[in-house]
Structure formats: C-alpha cells, structure tokens
Amino acid sequence: MWSGAPNGSLVTEIAGLPVGRALDVGCGEGADAIWLAQRGWQVTAIDISSVAISRARVAAKEADVDVDWACADILETPPAPHAFDLLTIQYPALLRTAGERPLRALLNAVAPGGLLLIVGHAHADPEIARQHGFDPDNYVDLADFSRLVVDDFDVETNDIRPRPSPPPGTHHADDAVLRARRRGERRAGLC
Description:
single chain, alpha/beta, seven-stranded mixed β-sheet
C-alpha cells in the first residue's frame, strides 16, 4: 500500500494547467489519477496489476471521483492515438525488450498541443538495484523517451530536480523529469 498522496513532481508540473483528458500509465493504486480527477481532468488510468486497480477503484470511490480504470498491459493494448491532453508516466517500469513500438504508441496518444510528463528515479545506484533483484538496464529510462520525442514534441524540461514532498523515510531524493509538448494546436472540443 502506498501513501495515497500524488507524486510531488506531477503536482508541481501539472498544477495550473488547463484541464482536459489525461492518461495515467502505470497508475498503481491511483493517487495521481484521483488527484487529477479532483481537479476536473477526465482521467483514464492503466496498470498491469489487478490488485492495484482494485485498490485504486476503492480509493476513487472514497474520494468521490470518476476515473476510467483499466487493468491492461499497454504493450499489448496501446492507447488511442492523439486522444489525451496529458500523458503521465511516473517512475516507469516498461521492459526494454519490447523495443520502441510501445514507446511510440504512448507518444502517439498525446493530442496536438498536449503534454507528455515522465518522471523517473534520478541517481539510482544500479548495483544496489541489482542486489535487490532489479536490473535497471532491462527497463526503459527517460533517455529512451527523450530520444524519441524530438520529431513531434518541444521539450520544455529534461533535467534532474529535488523530489517535491517525498514520502517519509524514502531514500529517493531526486527526480528525473521529462516534460514535452506535442507540436500543434490544442483541438477544440477537448476540455
């Protein structure tokens, strides 16, 4: 069970933006999706874990917000193209073996004028991660996304920052933040 609080970098980067349709990829127990919905976003939230989605549904009901929850693997079921004003991935855990196809499908889900926000762990020690059974080399990182966004997005932020409002006791003090806006005008009819 997580804290139930939204990720600080999401709050910092998204606060004040006009609302619209959001896709939260790897939503876990739903704190980010619920926070977005409480601010008027129409949220679709996806996670591969049915346990996480069940907990997220309970939390959303308690918060009295509507979120379109989906237990799905975005590698097998990519999102609709150009459908979201915001695509957020907080601390991605996407396997590198799937290649670029699923990454490009995620980027393609961002509508013209929409925002891509990816936040990852910065300064993680790969040897310590491997000692705990996690090999970072097996997973996509922000550099993989940064390399792919250049054709269709304007990068607004691609740096390392102190993590805003980290949970008590966390060793993770810095975030790697990629924020990029898809070129083109925001379409009429989107919230």
